[in-house]
């Protein structure tokens, strides 16, 4: 089963965008997310609807951060993406009348719900500013070497 990596990819490009105030094209963001520019435009349009990014059309246009990194959490981004499934596992539902399946699903369902609640709570505790600070600590003194347009070239 392929995992949904949109949250990770979007956080990645948002941090790149936060480090450089120039507009970023869908093509440049697509290279950073290893996806198609059409996918990026669809995702970024959803973020724009939530006021997280803005866009400018035409030559020199592109996407920009439009939010306060100190106020936006991972949960805000997760919700702007449409709240994708956070767990890859789920209950089996082939035999709903089977008492064994019911017992297993009750136990697993409770554990899955608790894990999701804990994860989403943690998402609400981490801001984009915190991720940016971590990035800056990791790449102190290497700023000129780290550029969205060049960092993801093959």
From TrEMBL:
Gene3D superfamilies, A to Z: Winged helix-like DNA-binding domain superfamily/Winged helix DNA-binding domain
Domain of life: Bacteria
Xref: InterPro entries: Tscrpt_reg_Rrf2, WH-like_DNA-bd_sf, WH_DNA-bd_sf
Protein name per Swiss-Prot or TrEMBL: Transcriptional regulator
Lineage: Bacteria, Pseudomonadati, Pseudomonadota, Alphaproteobacteria, Hyphomicrobiales
